[in-house]
Amino acid sequence: MTKPIRTAASPPSTESARGSVRIDGVSCGFDATTVLRGLDLTIDPGEFLTLLGPSGSGKTTLLRVIAGLIEPRAGRVVIDGADVTKLPPQKRDLGFVFQNYALFPHLTVRQNIEYPLKVRKIPTARRQELIAEMLDIVGLTGMDKRYPSQLSGGQQQRVALARSLVHRPKVLLLDEPLGALDRRLRQELGRELRRIQRETGTTAIYVTHDQEEAFVLSDRIGIMRDGLLTQLGAPIELYQRPSDLFVAGFLGDVN
Ligand code: ADP
Hints:
Elements: E1 21-30, E2 33-43, E3 48-52, H1 59-67, E4 74-79, E5 82-83, E6 94-98, H2 109-119, H3 124-137, H4 153-165, E7 171-175, H5 183-200, E8 203-207, H6 211-217, E9 220-225, E10 228-233, H7 235-240, H8 245-254
Parallel strand pairs: 3-8, 3-9, 6-7, 7-8
Antiparallel strand pairs: 1-2, 1-4, 4-5, 9-10
Helix pairs in contact: 2-3, 2-4, 3-4
Bound molecules: adenosine-5'-diphosphate.
């Protein structure tokens, strides 16, 4: 295995190289249906990996298996060398932003962001530090007393992102987090998301149906088909050398 190249420009937080994820032969399904069919995937610390593929190919299911919301029938999920397959979500050191994982409407921005810290019993003083830092990173300083209904869609997603990262998880799982926003805002927030992910050195696994977004944001893209990865590579590789007609056709569909 080649050693990762570290340059002076690398953010210090990636030096500790936390947040590797290994999916080993994961199969799962619902009742009689099989959704994931012995899927293997390794994600490097600090990497931004996007899953693309037709609707129903298993992208969300894979994220949910990594999150611990679905238990696989076979296979393992390994984070930084530790087998977490049997651990509940809150013990996995993950953050997630799902399209339908809404903010708590009766809590302020600050209280929403504070929630994961309270769950983890972080002392008050440290909580305030972490929240201030996160508000700054997502550009919402001064808006902490507002309620979600007093924010735009884009601001709400920034809060959701802040809430998912405030406890400094190793891995961030994102399922169509920008899906409900208009194109311009998607692009803007996509770039911001990438900046924040780099700054915090968090490994990100991103599900989207927006190919352009995937090509702009990702270190690597995995194309899913029928519960398996049919190709995995850097955006340029997929674009120039699709592994088969399915990938070529799928990528050709929308561009
Ligand atoms: P994708 O994210 O690629 O669109 P999903 O992972 O959401 O695909 O779904 C993969 C397959 O699993 C689909 O056929 C879907 O209908 C099925 N599925 C997903 N969740 C459930 C569930 N809770 N119960 C039954 N079937 C499900």
